[in-house]
Design brief:
The complex is a heterodimer of chains A (about 240) and B (about 850). Chain A is α/β, with parallel strands linked by helices and about 240 residues long. Chain A has 6 helices and 10 strands. Chain A has a single domain, classed as P-loop containing nucleotide triphosphate hydrolases (Rossmann fold), CATH 3.40.50. In chain B, about 55% of the residues lie in helices and about 15% in strands. The chains are: A alpha/beta (about 240), B alpha+beta (about 850). Bound molecules: adenosine-5'-triphosphate (ATP) and magnesium ion. The site of magnesium ion has 2 residues of chain A, from helix 1.
Chain lengths: ~240, ~850
């Protein structure tokens, strides 16, 4: 459990919009160990999503070095980044991004079609408690249920890294809690490394590691020796 | 309408330029095609009229079996309705230039005052001396130029010096004449039977006493189109008057001839009496030679006059048919293009309005009226369609006619074909384009404008997923791979896109099938079937009238010793045919009476037009060719009237209808001929099969030198002429094919880009999941190919229907097209359609690569 999973060293990201240059990240350093439940928190516009996108191989940093699972991703080309996404990363978005024309089961199947060692889609859906809704289309599911499908889709790929960008952002309190619990349980049971973004610092105590971001750099990083189960946190 | 809305519309054009361009392009192609095809017919008509006016093209041409004298000319001039009448002299001679010798038709140059069929000087000048001449452009292209010397020699026993004062000429000019509108200079009894060129000489050079023809112009025809009803109304009475004059003059001329001959005979008798001291006139009359002379005077044949209208000029008729065919092809095809334009406009505008629903909601909430909001989109669409129309006009009125003229110029000698702008055609096309786009836009706006602003602020719910019909068939569905299932679901999910694409693809395939099919039907197959299957003789010889027995046997000898492996005597007569009890126009055709019907199939294949079974000539009926039967609307068992001229008509029974594509024929067995005419047919034609080894020119010369032969014609020459005529149709068809191809590209591009923009998030999602670029594009292009496949089948069917319709409209005169389309044209259409899909996909793969996942997934639309 002491092995380094993620290492960011001096990562910067600059966006150019015409004449204007926006520094989204101004030098980010942090590490996450294998099997940790890491929480990235910070105000809106701090650069959280930017970090996650770089981490997930959807975007590249302007400068800096970073490794995931010992792979020097900053050196990777486009195609290698896709392979990395395909084999090692599971994404959960705020707005689920399910494919409307596919049933819950098929959405999961679509993701595992291209993986090397996926889990069985059916089992994963059972695991997230949707065994009865498998043949339903996204439009027939509630927001929480859709987010569960989207988590199932990410998990079924059997990724080494699960990235969640405000997964509860569009959900009500109770549903949000159950989704967080699902993520925490998965992390504990499978030993998968989870990185979760939130702007709600109240849920920080559930993480093994809390990284606070402000103005494009890490303001503070702390390790939580006694993470709490979601059930014990109120906000 | 505030300027805000207008500014907004202009900004919109700027920001969605490719969409604007798609509408503009599709309207441009549609209107270019419409105006182009529609204006070619009128252009051809106007060009001809202009040429005819400028050269004072004759309205009637009079021919006489004994030529005309000045009294004839005066009588014609005095006929009411005649504006001008001019005499012409002409003679066929051999023309030698360097090593070449071939037949030329030598014509007198029209009198500069009141010229009819005036020459159109292309180069050089008119003759000023009696040893100067002008030749036609076509002859000049193959030989003598200005400054060269040509020699004319007689083609008969009579020396040329009896007809012309000079026989050696300097070429001083090159000209065209309206008498010959095509490059076909007609036939002659000299040489190989084909006239190779025209030579124009000063009228004074002709030393013959009689004029060959008289050209007549009718009063009141200037400014009237020669192809109009009005023209016929004006010239028909004159034709009747001229026929009356003809019959009067024929009578007088016969009397005169008789009187002259009598006087000559009397003079001879007197001279003879004086020389031999005979005093008894009865003795003179009884002498055998004077008896014979008297007999031939008494039996002097009545001279014949022919009054020929413009339509008897084969070039003129061809030209008129060309106009009709062009108009036929232009009748429905352009509408197809506008149909497709509507489709593109509808999908594009619907998508645009859908994308801007939030903006529309905001405007509504701000209190803008529905009208003001819709105005922006209407303005957008109208601007695109107006600009498209204008560009389309430029191409349609200028470029397309020029391309088509280029083809027709190969065929016709018209010095100038001019393309004009036709207000009515232009207005109709613009009206069509603007209506189509604005109505489509209005329809696209309708649902959104009806919604409440609050509704519009929410993102539109994507269409919910649904199980498709196919899934109820477990057997099939279970067998499909996962990716195939997704493809099928997606196809049927977006119903509108499905139908639009299928329809768009179908239209394109249909146009390609129609275009390529037209080429098959009009060009390729007619030539193949007519000259390959039906006309099997290689050579035809026209015989002179009253061939004697000795001549006949000499001819037989020549034929058998000159590589003709077999030949058939045949009687061919020009007749006109009418349906019984019908006052409708009669149709000119050829009556064919093969002397040996049993061997006819070796020379002319008579086979049933529907079953293909060989047909046999019987003793109590005739066989008609297909187009003639269709035009007369008769079937086997019906009776038709055949007329040799106005007075000799016969009723005959139709027994069979034979496949044939060029020219109308009525076939008759000799015994049936005997039955209805009461006499045996007089063979006047020989159809022969060649061992093709002997050079044809030599053969023609040998045969022409044989007594009794008046002309020789090779089937291969006929086929060549036919192929040349069809070369021009090819241009038209290429325009259709290119336009169809362009349109196919625009349609496919529009539909596929809209598909991508609608499914932006979906594509971003699968990219995030780790699909490689190749897999992402396969995810989308699989659907395009499948839709293309679905569109092709109805497209092929529609293409066949469209093809049939156009063919019907384009088929004029005595030509019949082959209805079937060749398999390779179907294949090519399918292949091209797929190629367009592939090309568009190629462009779109680039777009797919550029889709930014992060952006797409950031928000909830
Ligand atoms: N594609 C882009 N182009 C320009 N600027 C960008 C782009 N993406 C992000 N930014 C800017 O970078 C900064 C960081 O953005 P980021 O999305 O990472 O913030 P965040 O911490 O995720 O905020 P939130 O909690 O609101 O999601 C912001 O100032 C944002 O405006
Ligand atoms: Mg964010």
């Amino acid at each position: 459990m002491n092995e380094t999973m993620i290492q960011f060293k001096g990562i910067t990201k600059q966006y150019t919009m015409g004449e204007v240059k926006i520094d989204a990240l101004t030098g980010v350093d942090f590490t996450v160990k294998r099997g940790e439940f890491a929480i990235i928190a910070g105000p809106s516009g701090a650069g959280k999503s930017t970090i996650l996108n770089i981490l997930g191989g959807m975007d590249s940093p302007t400068t800096g070095e970073f490794t995931v699972n010992k792979q020097p991703l900053h050196r990777y080309g486009k195609k290698d980044l896709i392979t990395y996404r395909r084999q090692e990363v599971g994404f959960v978005f705020q707005f689920y991004n399910l494919i409307q024309n596919l049933t819950a089961l098929e959405n999961v199947e679509l993701a595992v079609e291209i993986c090397k060692n996926p889990f069985k889609p059916l089992e994963i859906l059972k695991q997230v408690g949707l065994e009865n809704r498998m043949i339903n289309f996204p439009s027939q599911l509630s927001g929480g249920e859709q987010q569960r499908v989207s988590i199932a889709r990410a998990l079924a790929k059997n990724p080494t890294l699960l990235l969640c960008d405000e997964p509860t952002g569009a959900l009500d309190y109770t549903t949000g809690r159950s989704v967080l619990k699902l993520l925490q349980d998965t992390c504990r049971q499978t030993g998968m490394t989870v990185v979760l973004i939130t702007h709600n610092l109240a849920i920080a105590p559930m993480g093994d590691r809390i990284i606070k971001i402000k103005n494009g750099c890490v303001e503070n990083m702390s390790v939580n020796p006694n993470p709490l189960p979601v059930e014990d946190i109120e906000w | 309408m505030g300027t805000v809305i207008i500014k907004n519309a202009i900004k919109e054009i700027h920001s969605s330029f490719s969409r604007f361009l798609a509408i503009l392009l599709v309207i441009m192609i549609g209107s270019a095609f419409y105006t182009g095809l529609k204006s070619v017919g009128p252009d051809l008509e106007a060009s001809a009229n202009q040429y005819f006016e400028a050269t004072h093209f004759m309205n009637f041409r009079l021919l006489s079996s004994i030529g005309f004298n000045d009294a004839d000319l005066a009588a014609v001039r005095n006929t009411s309705g005649v504006e001008n009448a001019q005499p012409v002299n002409a003679i066929d001679t051999f023309l030698s230039f360097g090593q070449q010798t071939n037949v030329a038709h030598v014509i007198s140059i029209p009198d500069p005052t009141g010229a009819i069929n005036d020459l159109h000087l292309v180069q050089g000048r008119l003759p000023q001396q009696s040893n100067e001449c002008i030749i036609d452009k076509q002859r000049s292209e193959a030989g003598p130029k200005i400054g060269d010397t040509i020699t004319l020699t007689s083609g008969t026993e009579t020396p040329l010096s009896e007809s012309l004062s000079e026989t050696v000429y300097h070429v001083v000019g090159i000209a065209e004449t309206p008498s010959y509108l095509t490059k076909d200079r007609g036939i002659t009894q000299l040489g190989n039977g084909k006239i190779n060129g025209l030579v124009f000489l000063p009228a004074a050079n002709f030393t013959v006493p009689a004029y060959t023809e008289i050209l007549v112009t009718a009063a009141g025809t200037s400014g009237i189109s020669t192809f109009s009803e009005e023209y016929i109304e004006i010239t028909t009475p004159l034709e009747e008057s001229l026929n009356t004059v003809a019959s009067q003059r024929v009578e007088i001329r016969q009397q005169e001839l008789k009187a002259d001959a009598e006087a000559q005979l009397a003079a001879q008798k007197t001279a003879f009496a004086a020389a031999n001291g005979i005093t008894d006139p009865s003795l003179l009359d009884a002498s055998p030679e004077f008896l014979a002379a008297q007999k031939s005077i008494n039996e002097l044949a009545t001279p014949q006059w022919h009054v020929l209208s413009r339509t008897s000029n084969s070039g003129y008729l061809d030209y008129q048919n060309t106009i009709d065919s062009t108009n036929g092809i232009a009748s429905i095809l352009p509408l197809f293009f506008f149909g497709i334009a509507t489709l593109v406009c509808l999908t594009t505008m619907t998508r645009m309005v859908e994308e801007q629903r939030t903006q529309i909601g905001t405007l509504k909430a701000l209190g803008y009226s529905n009208g003001a909001i819709a105005f922006k989109y209407l303005l957008y669409a109208a601007t695109a369609s107006i600009l498209g129309s204008l560009l389309g006009w430029a191409i349609g009125f200028m470029l397309i006619p020029q391309v088509i003229f280029k083809a027709y110029r190969v065929l016709y000698t018209l010095p100038e074909m001019t393309s004009a702008f036709y207000g009515s055609i232009a207005a109709l096309s613009a009206l069509f384009a603007i209506t189509v786009t604005t109505v489509a836009t209005f329809l696209s706006c309708l649902t959104i404008l009806r919604s409440a602003p609050a509704e519009l602020m929410l993102p539109s719910a994507p269409p919910p997923g649904k199980r498709i019909f196919l899934e109820s068939f477990d057997v099939i569905w279970k067998k499909l791979r996962f990716s195939q299932k997704i493809t099928f679901r997606n196809l049927f999910r977006y119903k509108k896109r499905f139908w639009m694409t299928v329809l768009g693809v179908a239209c394109c395939t249909a146009m390609l099938v129609a275009g390529l099919g037209l080429r098959d039907s009009i060009a390729t197959q007619v030539a193949e079937k007519q000259f390959g299957d039906i006309l099997r003789y290689d050579i035809s010889l026209q015989l002179k009238e009253n061939v004697t027995m000795e001549q006949q046997s000499a001819l037989d000898y020549t034929l058998t010793n000159n590589n003709l492996s077999a030949y058939l005597d045949n009687t061919v007569n020009n007749i006109s045919v009418q349906r019984i009890a019908d006052t409708s126009d009669s149709i000119d055709s050829l009556l064919m009476v093969p002397t040996d019907p049993a061997s006819l199939s070796n020379y002319f294949m008579l086979r049933s037009y529907d079953t293909g079974e060989p047909l046999v000539l019987s003793d109590h009926g005739v066989i008609l060719t297909q187009k003639l039967a269709e035009s007369l609307d008769v079937s086997p068992g019906d009776t038709i009237v055949i007329k040799e001229d106005e007075t000799t008509t016969q009723l005959v029974l139709v027994e069979g209808i034979a496949e044939n594509y060029l020219q109308h024929y009525v076939f008759l067995s000799p015994s049936y001929y005997q039955t209805i005419y009461g006499e045996a047919p007089q063979p006047n034609q020989i159809l022969g099969l060649l061992d093709s080894t002997q050079p044809q020119e030599d053969l023609a010369a040998t045969l022409m030198a044989t007594e009794g032969v008046s002309s020789v014609r090779f089937t291969s020459n006929n086929e060549q002429d036919f192929q040349n005529t069809l070369g021009s149709i090819n241009y038209l068809i290429w325009i259709i094919i290119i336009a169809a191809a362009l349109l196919a590209l625009v349609v496919q591009y529009t539909l596929t880009t809209i598909n991508i923009s609608e499914r932006f998030r979906e594509i971003a999602t699968i990219k995030v999941l780790g699909f490689y670029d190749r897999e992402v594009s396969a995810y989308i292009t699989r659907e395009s190919y499948l839709l293309t496949l679905f569109g092709i089948l109805p497209g092929l069917i529609a293409g066949v229907l469209l093809h049939g319709y156009i063919l019907d409209a384009a088929e004029v005169g005595n030509v019949m097209y082959v209805e079937s389309i060749l398999a390779q044209s179907f294949l090519l259409s399918i292949l091209l359609t797929f190629m367009f899909t592939w090309l568009v996909n190629l462009i779109l793969i680039g777009t797919l690569k550029k889709i930014n996942m992060v952006e797409a997934l950031k928000s909830n639309e």
